[in-house]
Specification:
378 residues; SH3 type barrels; 61% helix; alpha+beta; 3 domains; three-stranded antiparallel beta sheet; Alpha-Beta Plaits; 8 strands
């Protein structure tokens, strides 16, 4: 009985399809093909996941993160197969096939971008910014991220070009344009120069690395840190939380200061103006005591020198060092504050002061007695 019922159901389904309109039959066949494609995709995905395992990290992540695009790809393939024998108008069939081809090209570009992102993330897992000496991490992260953006841009351009070339009219127009457009080509080249210069500058920065992420830099007289290196610009996080946006080509064409190019360790100066009676040796000892008690000092550089002299004051320059720019700024402020406090409490005579000369010569006899001429006149 169940077998007879199944046969009757199959016969009823076939009869219904024969009697149904062509578009209904096409939709039914399309739904059946899509269902089969999704089932095959699910089974194949499971099998590949078991074969790859968790040890092959790149392939495992690629299989997981491209599940959506590959699912769409098998659906596109199924729809394109059904379209070939579906009872549709030739113009409709051609339009659907063309749209499916464009969608497939976009999916390939999408999966390429995902693959590049996975490879970059896996490579950068070994580096972290949390360490004090993060120079190597900043170097590799900067290089990989810039190259990743360049690869994404190139993939998008190639994908768009491949999609546009599927249109016969655009392809012919492009060929004729390249064959006859001398002036137009020059104009387009000039218009695209900023984009191309920034793109090439990004490649140069990735290779030579004049700047890296979290580098301490001075650009246009502003101190800050490199927060982001995008495809066309660099974001500088200034000390007061403002953001300066600078084109990539700026760091190739113009000079700037990079305080953490080779290492994060820096030397800073603290300038004091004191009186000539200031005990320089005692101030030098106090400076050594202050930095020795500070956790910001890297135990590398500490010195005090008479840097200059003026008419009324001496200029003392204290040099101190720290591992990172933030620590150096705080150490300079600490040294400046504690040295001034030390002079105020223990050597107030060493603070700058003004001087005035007073004439204290005792009066002479001529000043006290009137002259003979004055006496005669009286």
């Amino acid at each position: 009985m169940p077998l007879d019922s199944l046969r009757e159901l199959k016969q009823w389904f076939a009869t219904t399809l024969d009697l149904a309109p062509p578009w209904t039959r096409a939709l039914a066949e399309l739904a059946l093909a899509v269902g089969i494609a999704l089932f095959v995709h699910y089974v194949v995905l499971r099998i590949l996941a078991r074969l790859i395992g968790a040890r092959r990290v790149f392939l495992s992540l690629l299989l997981t993160q491209t599940a959506g695009p590959t699912r769409l790809a098998v659906v596109i393939f199924a729809v394109s197969v059904v379209t070939q024998w579906a009872p549709l108008e030739p113009a409709v069939t051609q339009a659907v096939t063309h749209a499916l081809l464009i969608a497939f090209i976009i999916l390939v570009g999408w999966m390429a971008i995902i693959a590049v992102a996975i490879a970059a993330d896996i490579y950068l897992r070994r580096f972290t910014f949390d360490a004090e000496d993060n120079l190597l991490a900043r170097k590799h992260v900067t290089q990989v991220r810039i190259l990743q953006r360049a690869a994404d841009t190139l993939t998008i351009v190639i994908t768009a070009a491949a999609a546009f070339m599927t249109f016969e009219t655009i392809r012919q127009y492009g060929i004729s344009l390249f064959a006859s457009a001398g002036v137009v080509g020059v104009v387009v080249g000039l218009a695209a120069r900023p984009v191309l210069s920034n793109f090439i500058a990004g490649i140069q920065i990735a290779m030579t690395q004049p700047i890296r992420l979290e580098d301490a830099v001075i650009v246009e007289g502003e101190f800050g840190w490199v927060e982001e290196i995008a495809a066309a610009y660099v974001v500088i996080r200034l000390w007061d939380r403002r953001r300066m946006i600078v084109p990539l080509s700026y760091f190739i064409e113009k000079p700037f200061q990079n305080w953490s190019r080779q290492s994060t360790g820096l030397i800073g100066s603290v300038v004091l103006y004191v009186d000539y009676v200031a005990p320089v040796g005692r101030i030098r000892d106090k400076l050594s005591e202050i930095v020795a008690q500070s956790p910001l000092w890297d135990h590398q550089v500490v010195s005090l020198q008479v840097n200059d002299i003026k008419e009324t004051t001496m200029q003392l320059r204290a040099l101190v060092s720290a591992k990172i720019p933030d620590a150096l700024g705080n150490l300079q402020a600490e040294v400046r504050e504690k040295l001034i406090d030390f002079l105020q409490k223990e050597h107030p005579e060493a603070l700058p002061r003004g001087r005035a000369a007073l004439d204290i010569t005792p009066p002479t006899r001529d000043r006290l007695e009137p002259s003979n001429a004055q006496a005669s006149a009286a």
